[in-house]
Write a structure and sequence with these properties.
Elements: E1 2-10, H1 15-24, E2 30-33, H2 36-39, E3 48-49, E4 62-69, H3 74-86, E5 99-106, H4 107-113, E6 121-122, E7 127-131, E8 144-148, H5 160-172, E9 178-182, H6 188-195, E10 200-205, H7 208-220, E11 227-231, E12 242-248, H8 251-264, E13 265-277, H9 281-290, E14 293-301, E15 304-311
Parallel strand pairs: 7-8, 9-10, 9-12, 10-11, 12-13
Antiparallel strand pairs: 1-4, 1-5, 2-4, 3-6, 6-7, 13-15, 14-15
Length: 312
């Protein structure tokens, strides 16, 4: 089968919504080329990425790449993607150069091209994320290793929104907690919660491809007895009380279901919300406060924000 690589030259701010647009359009995998990864310094060396090649990255902005099967609907699909990206301006999202290019690749190239961008990354005090095809020797005896194969679901666990979520989980998840992961994607947050001692984790995602990918990664990390993966729209039908609800999704989506989170999170429990751009930070805070939570901590990484809130 032939595949078409669609490449969008955009901004860091637009990565998450554009990734979502590509995913909904049927993209089989998303690659992010961000030149900041080459030079930025992080506290405690978190986020250290190994063996990056400067030639793989643009001089400015970021490039988001995805792969679409070449078929009779390709032209229409690309037009719909362009239109959806242009509409992000309405939501005050800077899309930068917004240069879209298309090229053709064969199946073998598609299957391996994105792997060169994905390397072991230490993202917190406890966690290092390692792709399944890489060999990695733990630096510390208490280091927690998450093996991950994102497959066809975007999300390698190294995006700032995910890193902040995992750091927030470290601060909130206690042994035998009940955790709900809304929009689980590759399952990385559910895996982290299980490794931190949660008794049960409910991993939810509306997309069937993400559900399949999460199940594979959860089994790979041997936490399948703790984590249950289900295809579900946000918290619809979820009534079991939870100690922690974590959601790494778009701010616009978080705003729609904060009241549902309040119905699920136990008193004294936590809501971790991420995937929030700076411009939406106050809107999300206001919604979380209105739902009966108090903001305990706001974490910022690059242009992204995560919020840890406690149910009063």
């Amino acid at each position: 089968m032939k595949w078409s690589e669609i490449s969008i030259h955009t901004t860091n701010e637009a990565i998450e919504p554009i990734s979502n647009i590509l995913h909904e359009a049927g993209a089989s995998g998303v690659v992010i080329e961000d030149p900041l990864e080459l030079t930025k310094e992080r506290e405690d060396q978190f986020g250290e990425i190994y063996q990056l090649n400067p030639l793989d990255y643009p001089e400015e902005g970021v490039i988001v790449k995805a792969y679409l099967p070449v078929n009779s609907f390709l032209g229409e699909t690309v037009d719909e993607i362009k239109e959806a990206i242009n509409s992000l301006i309405v939501h005050n999202i800077d899309i930068g150069l917004n240069k879209v290019t298309i090229s053709e690749v064969n199946e073998e190239e598609w299957a391996t091209a994105w792997k060169k961008y994905y390397n072991p990354v230490k993202i917190s005090e406890k966690f290092t994320i390692v792709p399944t095809w890489e060999e990695y020797t733990p630096v510390h005896s208490d280091e927690l290793i998450i093996e991950l194969d994102p497959g066809m679901a975007f999300g390698t666990g190294t995006h700032p929104t995910t890193v902040m979520c995992i750091q927030a989980l470290e601060r909130t998840v206690r042994k035998d907690d009940q955790v709900v992961d809304v929009g689980t994607g590759s399952g990385v947050l559910s895996i982290a919660a299980a490794m931190l001692g949660a008794w049960h984790v409910e991993a939810l995602d509306l997309d069937e491809v993400a559900v399949q990918s999460a199940r594979l990664n959860i089994k790979l990390n041997k936490v399948h007895e703790t984590v249950t993966v289900s295809q579900n729209n946000l918290l619809d039908g979820i009534s079991e009380p939870a100690d922690v609800v974590v959601a790494n999704i778009l701010a616009e989506v978080i705003l729609r279901f904060t009241d549902d989170v309040a119905k699920v999170v136990k008193k004294g429990g936590y809501f971790i919300a991420s995937g929030i751009i700076q411009q939406k930070k106050q809107d999300v805070k206001d919604a979380i406060l209105a739902a009966g939570f108090e903001i305990e901590e706001t974490i910022q990484m690059e242009d992204w924000v995560a919020i840890i809130a406690k149910h009063k």
